[in-house]
Amino acid sequence: MAFQRGEVVLLPFPYTDLSASKTRPAVIVSSHMYHHIRSELLLAYVSSQVSKANPQIDYLLKDWQEAGLLKPSFVRPKIATIEPALIVYQVGLLSTRDMFEVDRRLRLALNLNTHPRP
Prior knowledge:
The protein is an alpha+beta fold. 18% of the residues lie in helices and 33% in strands.
């Protein structure tokens, strides 16, 4: 099954200490070029616990219903690499404006500025 950037999927997302995982939504952030070269997917964490969102790095989705999510949710730049076979369900697709803001938060979190620092 082919997956695309911006798709919201359900999968067993690992805890940061790798002690376990929890089935939760995530958004595919890897590019078409990446998918052409590598078999795995790069995904960012999605949570409905919006009170825990930090507006400096997390993005509260504007079009969460359009993306197929059941509750207001945010994307955190917490990245995991997952084999596509682990995807449980395809939920939906982020809107263009939400994907733009997710990309912006990823650039902030990873310090990927348009003007590199020395």
